From TrEMBL:
Keyword Hydrolase tagged: no
Job description of the protein: Positive regulator of sigma-B activity. Non-phosphorylated RsbV binds to RsbW, preventing its association with sigma-B. When phosphorylated, releases RsbW, which is then free to complex with and inactivate sigma-B.
Coiled-coil ranges (or none): none
Family, similarity comment: Belongs to the anti-sigma-factor antagonist family.
Protein name in UniProt: Anti-sigma factor antagonist
Keyword Phosphoprotein: yes
Keywords: Phosphoprotein
Domain STAS residues, every copy: 5-111
NCBIfam families: ant_ant_sig (TIGR00377)
Gene field: rsbV
Amino acid sequence: MNINLSIDVIEKDNQTELIVTGEIDAFTAPLLKEKLLPATAKESEKIIVNLQDVAYMDSTGLGVFISALKSTKEHGSTLTLVNLQERVHRLFKITSLDSIIAIDTTVRGGE
């Protein structure tokens, strides 16, 4: 099985940035969850997920972000998604998750 996902985690002060590259699907979502959820459990942590190099995400990926959002509510941390490509951003819009998950409005990748 070829897992087409890499995640760099940069921790500084009360901020954790995840730079995600590849595709988020049923095979790779567990890796994203494993890297993302511990950061959301830190009180007052600001989590930024950079999705600039994610061209594809399915509903499994959405599930990871919903879990992360619930965890931030429980622990008083915040979650922001940044640099979404249009295709990925559309998934959040179609499901109305863009109304509950903070998404930087800078959308990359054209129309």
